[in-house]
Amino acid sequence: SLYVSEYFSQSAQKLSFYSWYGNAKLFHFRVPEDTVLLRWLLQASRGKGPECTGMEITVHFRHGAPPVINPLGTRFPANATVRPSYNISITLSSAVQNTTFVNVTTPAAGDWFIAAHLPEAAGRIEVKGFSTPCPYMFQADMFVLRLTDMPVLEPGVPMPHTVVSPAKPLHVKVFVPKHAAGMRFQLSSCVTSEQRACSVRVLLGSITLPQSFQKSLTCTGSINCSLALDSPPWEKWLQIMVESLGTANASVSVEMLASFTVCRPGSTSSFLNFISLNQSQAGGRPGAAGSSAPAAGEAPRNASGQRSSCLQSQPVVREDLDVVSVRYRLLNGPSVPVSPLSPTLLLLNLNTGVDSGGSLVVNLLLNKTSVSLANATVAACVSAASPVLSLNATRNCSTAFSQGYPLSVSTSSAEATLIVLYPQTDDWFLSLQLLCPKGQGECTSAETKVTVFAYLTPCFNDCGPYGQCSLLRRHGYLYAGCSCKAGWGGWSCTDDSKAQSVGTQNLATLLLTLSNLMFLPAIAVAVYRFYLVEASVYTYTMFFSTFYHACDQPGVAVMCIMDYDTLQYCDFLGSVVSIWVTILCMARLKKILKYVLFVLGTLLIAMSLQLDRRGVWNMMGPCLFALVIMVTAWVHHGAKRRHCYPSSWKRWVFYLLPGITLAFIAISVYAFMETNENYYYTHSIWHVLVACSVAFLLPPRDKHKKPWAWSQKLTCRYQICQNDREELYAVT
After folding, report:
1. Which of 117, 259, 397, 427 could serve as 404's disulfide partner, Cβ 3.0–4.6 Å?
2. How far is residue 226's CA from residue 222's CA, in Å, rounded to a whole number?
3. Does 103 have pLDDT greater than 70?
């Protein structure tokens, strides 16, 4: 046998603390066919700074779709099926780097996903620039060992083979045809080279994570041993590994035989399906009524053929709506007939490779008027790769190598819903069968109808009223996740264990909006002291901060007067410009110089906020520069007057020191105390403290100006009018 090793690598990603699925870093690999060994190389590292401490990284694995994880222990939506993911933990303590290997023998071919994340986020709101977070990096590489000339076991043809040694197992594969109801594998003629008792172990199927349904068969002696499998995966290669359990130097010769039981489906002909599809698309097209007559005439002839088949296949059309959004439409109408003799089968195609990042929703509704037998139950099963062909009370909705998802409807419970989170890339099947309460013999002629709605959606119920459905991307792969708000949690934002009440949401909105009214005293002081430009800036800041926080609320108490991004930008701009004009006003510069600095500083602040809106230096930079100007101006005034400036001790004690104290407290609250839980009142305190500090820090008006001296600004009004009249008269 010729083995080929291949290596696949992806760039490292910076890990994040977990609060929702978007914080998990996803890696997407594709394992080739005939792979006999898969090895993951997981490399985790952290920075070397003092802010870096020991950390535990959780890594999840899954075949076919991204892993469904729940690190926070929240509730999933009702009717959602959740199977725990396979995960390992990587610890970074004293070592800066950790390397871990994970081996998987005979892995399933196709898509494999790895998701890595840090522990739960602390919830503290960190201002960019005040603290330096420690970088935790994670990289996943994949090594595969692939067999290039794997022997093919033909159905019904015995194949002799030799296992050279226990260290070199034998790998063969067999192709499972479509409509295969069962498979039987038989091993015979087991002979060792040392003429001893033969002992081998046979492994059928491939390993998939988080659950693996690989079948094992141990054969001892020369007698024949066999294994029967129900519902093997359709149209796929099934890998078989035979390993010797004998001595190291002894070879084993065996003969293998694989046979299949094929199910004959009963359904309408492809021509009738084509006619039905054309009629549904054309609507009331001329001649459509005449073309439906042959279909009605052939329906009785098809009924006898369907009763002798092992399944009734219903035609389903896949309709792509958007990214990770598919709707399945039944050609014969939303209601499908269900009988007790053979299951009704619907194919839900999810094998495009881009459908595994959403949620598959299947809804069944029993038509009670069509039930001809009381207390009858319609059993249903949703499975991947192959359908369940016998639905009764003893079977647990399982196929040869997978576990399906059971559903049931009856006259007492006429509706059932199933949500499959991140369905694996494959052909999915919905099987329905009517079960009689006392046995199948009582209702051989009974039939009922079930309305089926099936669709693929990025987020179930669009994450509800307290969540936002976000489309995530890893290279070319797209998947969706819910970002919850107002204390709600869970996969679809349905967990209300920590949710904020409506009263709390209203209180948060009122605090964050009405706290901006504390700018009214600062505006009044500015107008009274004739600082009209400063008062205009404070009014602008109060207006946009109020409506930005009214739009920024996570719950139901939300009001947006314009685009959210515009409101946020105007709020940030007004906040920084308010600090800028206040400090420059305190510097007591000449008017022309002051207004030039007002305009120039505002333009530079607007540019820097466009580059990085949340950078701390967008606020600290203008503040420090304005403080340098103010100190320089104060030193100049003091040197010119030959005493300290400002000269009044009352100005320092009753105005400057309280204003500076309030400003420092506000900055401390904003930078170090805000968290997601206390944001609505700590940020409201920030509003109040900043507005009050502005009122204290504004300098007094000029001594030669009187308050509200509006008439002095418009002198010689009569002269202006007289001149205008004279000029008009002269022109005339």
Report:
1. 397
2. 13
3. yes
Digit-coded pLDDT (tens) for 594-647 = 999 999 999 999 999 988 888 777 778 888 899 999 999 989 888 888 888 887
- The average pLDDT across 258-276 equals 66
CB 393 within 8 A of CB 440: no
Three-state secondary structure call for residue 681: helix
Distance CA 692, CA 710 (A): 27
Query: Is beta strand 311-314 parallel, antiparallel or unpaired with respect to 344-350?
Result: parallel
**Cα–Cα nearest to 455, from 589, 535, 358, 575:** 358
Count other C-beta atoms under 10 Å from residue 49's C-beta: 10
* pLDDT: which is higher, 476 or 42: 42
Rounded Cα gap, residues 175 and 151, in angstroms: 11
Name the maximum alpha-carbon separation found in the chain. Answer: 135
Cα gap 628→661, rounded to integer Å: 19
Residue with tokens 């792969």: 477
Q: Check: CATH 2.40.50.140 for 159-262?
A: no
Q: Two tokens at 186?
A: 């038989």
pLDDT band at 370 (very low <50, low <70, confident <90, very high): low
3-state secondary structure of 25: strand
Tell me, yes or no, if the two domains 312-457 and 502-697 fold the same way: no
Q: Are 67 and 85 in contact (CB under 8 A)?
A: yes
Question: In this structure, what DSSP letter does residue 21 have?
Answer: G
CB atoms within 10 A of CB 10: 15
DSSP state of 206: -
- The DSSP H or E segment spanning 725 is helix 717-731
Contact (CB, 8 A) for 428 and 383: yes
CATH topology classification for 312-457? Jelly Rolls (2.60.120)
pLDDT tens by residue, 344-366: 999 999 999 899 999 999 999 98
Pairing of strands 80-81, 415-421: parallel
Query: pTM of the predicted model, to two decimals?
Result: 0.83
State how far the Cα of 494 lies from the Cα of 466, in Å rounded to an integer. 8
Q: Residue ranges per domain, the chain?
A: 3-147, 159-262, 312-457, 502-697
Render pLDDT for 663-701 as a digit per residue (tens, 0 to 9): 999 988 888 888 888 888 899 999 999 999 999 999 987
Strand order in the sheet with 311-314: 265-266, 311-314, 344-350, 426-435, 377-384, 405-410
Which stretches of 106-251 are assigned E, i.e. beta strand?
A: 110-120, 136-147, 159-163, 170-176, 180-192, 199-204, 215-220, 225-230, 236-244
Architecture of domain 3-147: Sandwich (2.60)
| Each residue's pLDDT tens digit, 493-542 | 999 888 888 888 899 899 999 999 999 999 999 999 889 999 999 999 99
H or E segment at 161?
strand 159-163
Rounded Cα–Cα distance for residues 687 and 647 (Å) = 30
Nearest 5°: the CA angle 538, 542, 544 is 120
Please give the torsion angle defined by the CA atoms of residues 567, 612, 488 and 491, in that order, rounded to the nearest 10 degrees.
Answer: 130
Q: Are 383 and 213 in contact (CB under 8 A)?
A: no
